[in-house]
Amino acid sequence: MSLNEVWEAASATPFTPLITKDSQFSVGFNLLLLALVTATLFGLNQSFLGIASLGLPAALAFGFGAVFMICAAGVYV
User: Fold this and answer.
1) For residue 62, which of 28, 14, 22, 12 has the smallest C-alpha distance?
2) Are 65 and 32 in contact (CB under 8 A)?
3) What mean pLDDT do residues 53-68 have?
């Protein structure tokens, strides 16, 4: 199968994102709020177990929340 055939076959099934454009702001805001809460709880109890249970989820929630907020609000220069 050539690349052109793959390209033509892919046009029949367009990409639909998991999070729609209309709900990116609310998802991003909730992820940032979750990151704030879990980072605060991690700051109160800094242990090795807390890194896996609070620190890592807080970092992931902040990262994904920030990307969703940038996509929802846009970047204006």
Assistant:
1) 28
2) yes
3) 95
